[in-house]
Amino acid sequence: MGPIMIVEDEEAIARVLAAYVRKAGFECLICKDGSQALASFEAARPVLVLLDVMLPGKDGWEVLRGIREKSACPVIMLTARGEVGDRIRGLNEGADDYIAKPFEPEEVVARIQAVLRRPPQSLVDPDQIVFGSLRIDLQSRSVYLNGAVLSVTPRDLSLLLFLAENPNRLFEREQLIEKVWGIDYEGSDRAVDLSVKRLRSLLLHWPAEEGEIRTLRGTGYQLYANTSR
């Protein structure tokens, strides 16, 4: 197994993270800037990257794009607390998770272990999306909860499918309108809110520990799914 790569320019934070990562049984590699991280990535073959957004030289966004050009290696972004835009951008550009600073090292280790428990994409049935007791059959465009079929309108189903195909990614209303309703849609973005309300009603008995549709401070929505289950 390769190491956990920690890309963090603050030496004290990197040192604490490394100590906890090693205590959890992982090897560890510390990079102090983005250029060093990209230069070391292929040779190190890390199993996961902890990537700070604010880095000297190449920032975290450049590093994330560089990694995604060549690898599906899991990446957890480290962002400043309250920087919601950073979280949206990181997840939309391919990060697997994010953690806001300041953080507890134990939480970081728990997040690492959760991400690494996720099944490889090749093991997922391409015709189904399954999050615990929620199952979406892509071929028949049917939704099942605890084995029972749900009656979903075509538009609501299209929204649910889009969110489910992009789990744990945050989307603003305007993005959802464009992706689901289409760029020619001339109605209010209130349609997104109403669609989400109907979906939440249908998914009322979907256990929260398996997943839920979350609101991002009135800006947009995310289908949170516990993909480590």
TrEMBL record:
PROSITE patterns per record: OMPR_PHOB (PS51755), RESPONSE_REGULATORY (PS50110)
Gene3D superfamilies to which the protein is assigned, alphabetical: 3.40.50.2300, 6.10.250.690, Winged helix-like DNA-binding domain superfamily/Winged helix DNA-binding domain
Pfam families per the UniProt record, alphabetical: Response_reg, Trans_reg_C
Keywords per UniProt: DNA-binding, Phosphoprotein, Transcription, Transcription regulation, Two-component regulatory system
InterPro entries tied to this protein: CheY-like_superfamily (IPR011006), OmpR/PhoB-type_DNA-bd (IPR001867), Sig_transdc_resp-reg_receiver (IPR001789), WalR-like (IPR039420), WH-like_DNA-bd_sf (IPR036388)
Keyword Transcription: yes
Domain OmpR/PhoB-type: 126-225
Chain coiled-coil ranges: none
Entry keyword Transcription: yes
Top-level taxon of origin: Bacteria
Limits of the Response regulatory domain: 3-116
Residues with the 4-aspartylphosphate modification: D52
DNA-binding residue intervals: 126-225
Protein's name according to its UniProt entry: Response regulator transcription factor
Annotated source species: Cohnella hashimotonis
